[in-house]
Amino acid sequence: MSDAKLTFPHPPARPNQPVDFSNIVVPKAGLLPVPPLDLAPQDAQPFARGLIRVMDDTGTPVGPWAEYLGEMPADDLRKGLRDMLKMRAIDRRMQNAQRQGKTSFYMQSTGEEAIGCAFQRQLQQGDMNFPTYRQQILLVAADYPLEPMLGQLYSNDLDPLEGRQLPIMHSARDYGYFSVSGNLGTQYVQAVGWAMACALRGDGKIAAAWIGDGATASNDFHSAMLSASVYQPPVVLNIVNNQWAISTYTGVAAGKSETYAARALGYGVPALRVDGNDFLAVSAVSRWAIERARKGFGPVAIEWFTYRAAAHSSSDDPSAYRPKDEAQAWPLGDPVDRLKAHLIDRGEWSEERHVQAGAELLDEVTQVQKQVEAHGTLVNPQPASPTAIFNGVYADMPEHLRRQRQEMGY
Amino acid sequence: MSDAKLTFPHPPARPNQPVDFSNIVVPKAGLLPVPPLDLAPQDAQPFARGLIRVMDDTGTPVGPWAEYLGEMPADDLRKGLRDMLKMRAIDRRMQNAQRQGKTSFYMQSTGEEAIGCAFQRQLQQGDMNFPTYRQQILLVAADYPLEPMLGQLYSNDLDPLEGRQLPIMHSARDYGYFSVSGNLGTQYVQAVGWAMACALRGDGKIAAAWIGDGATASNDFHSAMLSASVYQPPVVLNIVNNQWAISTYTGVAAGKSETYAARALGYGVPALRVDGNDFLAVSAVSRWAIERARKGFGPVAIEWFTYRAAAHSSSDDPSAYRPKDEAQAWPLGDPVDRLKAHLIDRGEWSEERHVQAGAELLDEVTQVQKQVEAHGTLVNPQPASPTAIFNGVYADMPEHLRRQRQEMGY
Amino acid sequence: MARMTMIEALRSAMDVKLSDDPGVIVFGEDVGYFGGVFRCTAGLQAKYGEERVFDTPINESAIVGLAIGMAAHGMRPCVEIQFADYVYPAYDQITQEAARLRHRSNQQFTCPMVVRMPTGGGIFGGQTHSQSPEALFTHVAGLKVVIPSTPYDAKGLLIAAIEDPDPVIFLEPKRIYNGPFYGDHAGKSVPWSAHPAGEVPEDHYIVPLGRAAIRREGADLTILAYGTMVYVAERAVEQAGIDAEIIDLRTLLPLDLATIVASVEKTGRCVVLHEATRTSGFGAELIAEVQQACFWHLRAPLLRVTGWDAPYPHAQEWDYFPSVSRVVAALAKVMED
Amino acid sequence: MARMTMIEALRSAMDVKLSDDPGVIVFGEDVGYFGGVFRCTAGLQAKYGEERVFDTPINESAIVGLAIGMAAHGMRPCVEIQFADYVYPAYDQITQEAARLRHRSNQQFTCPMVVRMPTGGGIFGGQTHSQSPEALFTHVAGLKVVIPSTPYDAKGLLIAAIEDPDPVIFLEPKRIYNGPFYGDHAGKSVPWSAHPAGEVPEDHYIVPLGRAAIRREGADLTILAYGTMVYVAERAVEQAGIDAEIIDLRTLLPLDLATIVASVEKTGRCVVLHEATRTSGFGAELIAEVQQACFWHLRAPLLRVTGWDAPYPHAQEWDYFPSVSRVVAALAKVMED
Ligand SMILES: Cc1ncc(C[n+]2csc(CCOP(=O)(O)OP(=O)(O)O)c2C)c(N)n1
Ligand SMILES: Cc1ncc(C[n+]2csc(CCOP(=O)(O)OP(=O)(O)O)c2C)c(N)n1
Ligand SMILES: [Mg+2]
Ligand SMILES: [Mg+2]
């Protein structure tokens, strides 16, 4: 009777099917130009539909964005590489601790580290990230100390949040890291509000909003894009497209949109799409976008194209919904490997130093982990006092909370 | 200190300033081609940024869309013209009744009548509109009887909704008119759900969603566009851009978006922008879009470009926020005048017949109004029994509502 | 002293705060150039400029979400939701974000924000211009919930709310924007200029959050009310000829339980009024607290007079609105026992 | 008869309805291919195809908004919100649209839709995986609100909910998905296979909405509970050695007041339990109704044992969760009077 049939987006491959990334177009590095800082949305089409890449297959930076970036000091790159390795050490140790029941929950960011790592280094003191749960690397790259970081993960007395929040829901105002919410999307528009405050108060700072590909579907992605388009505050709207939202393929969030960057264009927000596993591309585009925002040319959206190599969280097993070897086959490679290759190519790094750095960092993390675990784990909990429950619900504790605290025995 | 400054969109003119529509580009009629029914979003750019117009300045249909439409039977056009005149008669009489205190609230649709009027005639029995409060013309064009329509406006015992809803929040399932909600945006995604049900049950019907330019800012505009893009149900997503949302200029909802149609493109929903005051253009594009949806080529968005000539509602006085003579200066003219000119040009109408038709319709409406008023007005209310409050909260009245009804004295 | 309507008093509060604190900012749908559909912000954009008072797109979660970001940064946004009936798209931002930001960040980030919204019925607004959603906010730890019943209180409470370090839901009973309403919709309307509470100082003052006001002292029965229902209570007490104490709660969260308990311990009888639907309305909370605190003083069950558990109807508005006669009947019933 | 966990029982309910009614359709985040993060829909897509069971984008107002459109058309959507904590973006659609569609259209359009969501704490989920929002739905006329406490009830209630002509909010106490939980988080967990209520028929049956179950008969005191708290109540009664009657409400709206009143008239004492924050929680409504209906039978004030009025903490979960010892203390206190 009817010609209308619904469609249901599918990933290219399911478990026990051969990995298939033939749908992913990987343009050559260096093709796209560097647009002027005042890039208008109408002129952003090639950037929103293309893919900005800086390192070629051998790790050599090529093209206009490489020029724009200039030769990054080797120390800065080594710092980036080390931060990524440190993040992997934390992920490894904490995933392990979770498996041992020492913490209730953990989330890795394997494969996506270059994005936050390179982005953070382009920010200034006082700029504010509104991160998702998968952006711990922003803290690492901002040199947030390991003690409070791991303390939060163990919810023990080293936790600056006194156990109130689920592990990885950090908050570190002084490190430009806004309190993470578990509700997807909500913070995207808050970032725009923060950026409006920056402009209204003229403090010269900017905000950086973060969202996953899956969460672009949330209503506040829309409310944020719209608000940014209307008021033109200094905000960088980051979209981390890692192809998956728990078990759900990115196509379900994308529908027939060509790219997430292109969706931003519909709002009149200029947007670029970037190889998120290319540390140099991330550095270059971050610098450009942050400068654009700070100089008063308004908001910009960036789709960072990457792949969530690990499970969604410690509660998830991706082998139930995608081929086991998908991560290895990801056409944009691994961000650590690629930066390492580039540094080696520049004569600024070696396989040996890499192995050694990895070992040192794992050691460092393990050491701190031990100290932090001595302050309590889920097996041997030493949370902050139960009265923490009542503190900070309001600035001043109202009568009824005082009564409830008494009822609790304090 | 800071370079970042916020922007605040402004209308071209405020009260006591000269009307200024220089920002509105009116392309010649007949320029745009008729795309294939399976138009892909990537190919829709010219349609989403341009403006489909059929009648030239003399009222003669020109170009590919005129051809696509063919010569519409004069009877059909006269019916359309009469429906628009009838709508104006209703608006006039009811606005008046509101001023006399006979009803609490009213909303006119002056200047926008061609859109719903021509669209409705392209639908089939069983298709469902999800209208806003400003789409009463859909009911008129569907030959909904005046008694229940006016009964609803007076909330008297002729009201099919038994007084439950604010005037103009009609519901008429048999006439393809979904129950209007006062909450903006919410029904846009419901229309997509209804269309999904059409496809899943294979009933060959389609849904038509309606939203105002201001309400495109609402979250469910986003959730609807996204859902339509993902599942590809048979839905036409109408956006009535009448330049105003109460006192707020359309630029506040648009931000830096070029057009609302272009915003839909960001979701991968093909979109067209149409002269909404051109009865023939509305007829042609409606036919195309409805056929596309019914044939299973998926959703399509249409931005109907028009002007809200009257006040937002009976509670509003637009002279406080826009020049008094803006409506007269609207570059796309008046839909009634334009269709009339076309019909006269075709030798199928005359000034005399027009005046006479207007008088007849006003008479008809006035007659019915009198009869309906005899069933109660706000001055002399005869609402349905207070027990209507308790009926239909649930299919079966639960105990606690039975108790409350008793408490009320019934 | 100046006589003001509640609308003017609210405007005056924003005016005072806009002028004495550069961090205060006002925005919402139609609030900028036009000054709001109820005119509460009329003239403020002209006076303070577009950066301080502006129009927003029709997106309530954006309005509140932006405000949260600004408040966390250190500003003091005071935003308007055009009708309380339209706050639901912002419910996620208010309850999951604003309410918990201080707590979850252990005070690193806070949210000194006010969300104003016209509330309640009595204006023939039908189900989408008449709702009273207070109980949906009183259930949420971290919020404060305020509802004034006079121009004087409206200004003083709004200034206190803007100065408060935490998010405040500020409900404005629109039926009494222009004058007190004694429940007789067919009767003559009384303007605020004819009521002593219409006297409002031009300058800065506060009415502290968290304190109820005793509108009428009485010995026989306690009536708990807020917003429009305070006046319905006054008229009902007159009609019933009962020596009732009328308490205007003013702040629902945190609640001034001490004032309530002192009264009910004295009277031994209590009736609770609100316009919202009955089930799980704020009246339930009041009763739960009062019966626990005053159990041994109670001489009769506590009763509620509320809106019915149905959507707010348009034509049958006065059958839905808790009328003077329903209140009188409840008072009589409680006195019987 | 088969032994099922609550998850399996819920899946079986959907399976039964998918197979016997072509209008039934199941969707939500991760519910399709993967079968839901709690696996409630595992296998259903493989069995019924993608048109009947599918994944959605992460947009709860779309999930519910689409379901409303489908339900109005005549289908019977049964959708999942991944955690009750994420229902707020859909709150507008649920409360302003689904709940009122039948009424406002005078029965032209109806909304036979079920919104399932895992609710409650006890799984170390922190503030965004532990909330109990039932009171935010019981305040809304037009909704039904259900919360099972056993696999048997879960299946029978879910089938009844899917067959119900009106929108049903179906709260699933996730702490007891796999077994009853007696409040001792450090103790051994009991699987449903070891509990008689784990016996669940494979076929169609219903547990009618609107009827409470008496889980334990007793003469001295009535405990009103639902979801996980039913088991905490059982343990507390054992420990306290009080002959309490435990009523499992199962449906909160409409409430089975008759069963409650009969019990409290008998016992004269009542304690109400829930995990949600106290102020304006559903306990308040229960107390308001019970004190009115049973006033002359009451021998002590009604007490509530609930979550504290604070966000649900992660590390201090067991200080927040209404513990056996808190319930025991409340029982003792009520018996004192
Ligand atoms: C409003 C809301 N709905 C659902 C969830 C549950 N949830 C947590 S993470 C997640 C997937 C998010 O995917 P994506 O945005 O792509 O981020 P990624 O995990 O890939 O970094 C979902 C559905 C949530 N946290 N909030
Ligand atoms: C969620 C919500 N927010 C606010 C309102 C108040 N309101 C009613 S109509 C309107 C303007 C709508 O403008 P537009 O969508 O352009 O439609 P038009 O009136 O021009 O037809 C507003 C803000 C509402 N009804 N619902
Ligand atoms: Mg993702
Ligand atoms: Mg408009």
Automatic annotation (TrEMBL), chains A, B:
Domain 2-oxoisovalerate dehydrogenase E1 alpha subunit N-terminal: from-to ranges:
5-41
**Which CDD domains does the UniProt record give?**
TPP_E1_PDC_ADC_BCADC (cd02000)
Q: Which GO biological process entries does UniProt record here? A: branched-chain amino acid catabolic process
Q: Which Gene Ontology MF annotations are present? A: branched-chain 2-oxo acid dehydrogenase activity
EC no.?
A: 1.2.4.4
Could you tell me which Pfam families the record lists for this protein? E1_dh, OxoDH_E1alpha_N
Q: Which UniProt keywords apply?
A: Oxidoreductase, Thiamine pyrophosphate
- Name under which the protein is recorded: 2-oxoisovalerate dehydrogenase subunit alpha
Automatic annotation (TrEMBL), chains C, D:
Q: Which InterPro entries match?
A: THDP-binding (IPR029061), Transketo_C/PFOR_II (IPR009014), Transketolase-like_Pyr-bd (IPR005475), Transketolase_C (IPR033248)
Give the Enzyme Commission number: 1.2.4.4
Per the record, the GO terms for biological process are: branched-chain amino acid catabolic process; response to nutrient
Q: Does the keyword Transferase apply?
A: no
Q: Which UniProt keywords apply?
A: Oxidoreductase
Q: Which Gene3D superfamilies match?
A: 3.40.50.920, 3.40.50.970
Q: Which residues form a coiled coil?
A: none
Tell me where on the tree of life, at the top rank, the source sits. Bacteria
The cofactors it requires, by name, are: thiamine diphosphate
Keyword Oxidoreductase belongs to the record: yes
> Which residues belong to any copy of the Transketolase-like pyrimidine-binding domain?
4-179
Which GO terms label this protein's molecular function in UniProt? branched-chain 2-oxo acid dehydrogenase activity
What top-tier enzyme class does this entry carry?
oxidoreductase
Under which name does UniProt file this protein? 3-methyl-2-oxobutanoate dehydrogenase (2-methylpropanoyl-transferring)
Species this protein is from: Paracoccus caeni
